[in-house]
Amino acid sequence: MCVPLFLAILISSVAAQSGHPEFDPPFEEIVLQEGSLQNIECVAKGELPLVYKWYNQSDAEVTSDANRDPFTRPSENGFSLIFAEVKRSHAGLYSCSATNKYGTASKPYDITVNTTSGKVRISLCLLTSGAGQII
Ligand SMILES: *[C@@H]1O[C@H](CO)[C@@H](O)[C@H](O)[C@H]1NC(C)=O
Ligand SMILES: *[C@@H]1O[C@H](CO)[C@@H](O)[C@H](O)[C@H]1NC(C)=O
Prior knowledge:
Layout: H1 2-17, E1 28-33, E2 38-42, E3 51-55, E4 71-74, E5 79-83, E6 92-100, E7 103-115, E8 118-120, H2 126-134
One 2-acetamido-2-deoxy-beta-D-glucopyranose binds next to loops.
């Protein structure tokens, strides 16, 4: 009975030591205030160099073009998603991925926009449709 548990612990500690990219916590819910400037930093653990990417609600890569909102910028420890001015239409499920020579890890960010008339929330179905495109 103990063997599978022991093996599971062994495998997870080996995975943790391998340098594979990892996110802790693996998922985040964020509330942004409509009209504000926001910077969401994505930081992974794992062997450097790590290459980061941010994806928007339609799974398109967010570029560093500051004429668009949001856009991305390298940050001190990772990679930031920047909203110059948060809008209701920015609500939804975003993701950040980090890649190194061992592989890629992705972290979903559930972004809710707080407006004067209440919260805008795009309902999620992480376990069904979302998981396929994120992982
Ligand atoms: C959301 O809005 C409410 C009132 O409109 C405010 O009290 C709350 O602090 C806001 N939350 C954030 C994260 O801005
Ligand atoms: C995601 O980004 C793509 C490319 O910039 C853009 O065409 C698309 O409208 C964005 N999706 C949403 C929901 O804003």
